[in-house]
Design brief:
Number of strands: 17
CATH topology of the largest domain: Enterococcus faecalis V583 fold
Radius of gyration: 24 Å
Strand content: 15-25%
Helix content: 25-40%
Length: about 475
C-alpha cells in the first residue's frame, strides 16, 4: 500500500465541508482552517411520517403523479380570468343566503374566531340590518341562528377577514378557458375597514355607499366597456412594479384608465361620478379584489385531478392556515396561523397583531403575489426587507413549483415566468415553504389595519397533506 497520498493529505492544507450545524464550520474558521458550510437539511425536516410518505410515493403510485401534475399545471397556465360583471352576493354567489356569513380561510366556528374576524362578522350583521349594535351582533353570531362557511366553499375569496354577506356587491370573474367562476367583494381601502375587523359607523356607511352608489356606477361602466381581460392586465402589472397581492398601484391605475372614459359618460349626477373616481384614485388596493378572484378561478380549474399533488388552495382564518390538494379536493389540511414579521403603522407593534388571516394567499397559489416579489422591489417598503430579499424569495419558489408562467414574467429575471404550480411533494422534500406577503390586522375587534409583512405557513399542514396523499395513491 502506498502511504504517500495519506501523508500528502495531512501535509497539505485542510479544507472542510460541513453539512451539519453551522457552528462546526465556524469553529474551524476560528482556528484558522478553511471550511465551507453546505445549506443542507434532511428531507421533510427529519419527520419520519413525512419521509415514509415520500419514500412510498417514490416507490410507486396507483396513478401517474407526474402526468396528473402536468395536467393540473396546464389548466392553471391556460386559464383566462375575465371580469364579466358585478352582482349582489345573494343573487350570484352559489348558496348565498341572508343568514349566511362567508369568511376567509378554512372552516371555523364563532367560538374559535380571532378578533378581526369577529369584528368583521359584527360589522357584516349590522350592515345587513340583522343587528343594530355590536352587542346585538355578537349575541346573534353566538346564537346559532347565523351560519358560517368559508368563502372557498362558495367559489369565492375574501381578503383578510374575508367576510361576505348577502347584500354586498361582488366582482364576477369567469375563467373563459374552462367556464368556472369566482367572486369577491369590492375593496374598501386600507385602515379602518371591515376586512380588518373594524365596524364603526364610518365603516358601515362606506359599505352602504359602495353598494348603493359605487357598484351601480361600475356596473354601468362595465356594460359600456365590456369584459376585462384580467390575464392581460396581470401580465402588465408585473412589468410595472406590482406583484398582484400587496402592491396594486399599477393594477388600480390600469383599471381606472380603462373605465374612466366610460364612467364620465354615464347618466349619473356629476358629484356621484366624481366621488367614485376619487375613491378609486385614493385606493391603491382596489385592484386586489379583482386579482384574487382571477387567481381563484385560474387555480380552481386544476382541482379534482386524480393523482395530482398540486396545491389548489391556501387560506387563513386568523386561527388556522389551511391547504387543499388537487388530488384530494374535499379535504382541508390545517395548522396554526402564523405570526407576521413586518412593518407597523405608527403607534402599533407586534404585541397588537392578530395572527395571519385572509384568502389573498390565493394569489401566491396561482403564481403571483409573494411568488412574484422580484417584479415588485418597492413592495419591501410595505412589508419589510430589501430589493435583494424580494428577488431571493422568488428564486426559492422555483424549487417548489412544477412550471413557469408563460404570461406572467419578471423583468429583473430576464423576463423569466413566475414560479407556478406549488407541488406539495417538493415543499415537504425541500423544507421550503411558500412565500406569503400580507397585511396585519389588530388582534382586537373593531380596530383595523396595523401593518404588513411576510409570514411562514405551518409546516405540518403540508406534511399532513403529503401523508394523506401517500395513503391514497402510494402502492
Amino acid at each position: 500500500m502506498n502511504a504517500k497520498p495519506v501523508l500528502d493529505l495531512f501535509g497539505g492544507e485542510l479544507r472542510a465541508i460541513n453539512l451539519g450545524l453551522e457552528s462546526f464550520a465556524a469553529d474551524l474558521v476560528r482556528e484558522g482552517a478553511a471550511a465551507v458550510q453546505v445549506d443542507w437539511r434532511p428531507p421533510a425536516g427529519g419527520d419520519r411520517k413525512a419521509i415514509a410518505a415520500l419514500d412510498a410515493i417514490a416507490a410507486g403510485t396507483t396513478v401517474d403523479v407526474k402526468k396528473a401534475n402536468a395536467e393540473a399545471v396546464r389548466r392553471i397556465l391556460a386559464a383566462e380570468p375575465t371580469v364579466i360583471g358585478i352582482g349582489i352576493a345573494k343573487d350570484v354567489v352559489p348558496g348565498m343566503a341572508k343568514d349566511l356569513v362567508l369568511h376567509a380561510g378554512p372552516p371555523v366556528t364563532w367560538e374559535k374566531m380571532c378578533g378581526p374576524l369577529r369584528g368583521a362578522v359584527i360589522g357584516g350583521l349590522i350592515f345587513e340590518g340583522l343587528a343594530k349594535t355590536p352587542e346585538e351582533a355578537e349575541a346573534l353570531a353566538a346564537s346559532g341562528r347565523i351560519r358560517f362557511d368559508p368563502c372557498h366553499h362558495h367559489d369565492a375569496v375574501g381578503p383578510m377577514a374575508g367576510v361576505m354577506t348577502a347584500s354586498m356587491p361582488v366582482w364576477i370573474v369567469e375563467n373563459k378557458a374552462f367556464g368556472n367562476k369566482a367572486y369577491c367583494t369590492l375593496n374598501e381601502g386600507l385602515g379602518k375597514v371591515l376586512r380588518y375587523g373594524a365596524y364603526s359607523a364610518e365603516v358601515i356607511d362606506r359599505l352602504a355607499w359602495m353598494r348603493d352608489e359605487l357598484a351601480p356606477i361600475l356596473v354601468a361602466a362595465l356594460e359600456r366597456f365590456g369584459p376585462i381581460d384580467m390575464k392581460s392586465i396581470l401580465a402588465q402589472i408585473l412589468q410595472m412594479g406590482d406583484e398582484g397581492h400587496n402592491r396594486n398601484r399599477a393594477g388600480t391605475s390600469l383599471i381606472i384608465r380603462e373605465l374612466a372614459p366610460h364612467i364620465v359618460m354615464l347618466d349619473f349626477p356629476k358629484e356621484k361620478l366624481s366621488k367614485a373616481l376619487a375613491f378609486l384614485n385614493a385606493n391603491d388596493h382596489f385592484f386586489l379584489n379583482m386579482s384574487m378572484p382571477s387567481a381563484k378561478c385560474s387555480v380552481d380549474a386544476a382541482a379534482g385531478i386524480e393523482g395530482s399533488s398540486i396545491i389548489t388552495t391556501m387560506a387563513r382564518n386568523g386561527t388556522e392556515f389551511g391547504i387543499k390538494l388537487s388530488g384530494l379536493p374535499g379535504r382541508w389540511f390545517t395548522g396554526p396561523a402564523g405570526v407576521v414579521d413586518g412593518l407597523y403603522l405608527p403607534g402599533f407593534g407586534p404585541e397588537d397583531a392578530a395572527r395571519d388571516i385572509g384568502d389573498s394567499v390565493i394569489t401566491e397559489t396561482s403564481g403571483i403575489g409573494g411568488f412574484a416579489m422580484a417584479a415588485a422591489p418597492a413592495i419591501v417598503k410595505f412589508v419589510g426587507g430589501s430589493p435583494k430579499d424580494a428577488i431571493d424569495v422568488t428564486m426559492r419558489m422555483y424549487e417548489i413549483t412544477d412550471a413557469e408562467s408563460q404570461s406572467y414574467r419578471i423583468p429583473v429575471l430576464d423576463f423569466r415566468g413566475t414560479p407556478t404550480g406549488i407541488n406539495v411533494i417538493k415543499v415537504v422534500e425541500t423544507g421550503i415553504l411558500p412565500a406569503i406577503n400580507t397585511g396585519i390586522a389588530h388582534k382586537n375587534p373593531g380596530v383595523g389595519m396595523v401593518g404588513a409583512g411576510l409570514v411562514k405557513p405551518p409546516e405540518n399542514a403540508f406534511r399532513d397533506a403529503l401523508v394523506a396523499f401517500a395513503e391514497k395513491y402510494a402502492i
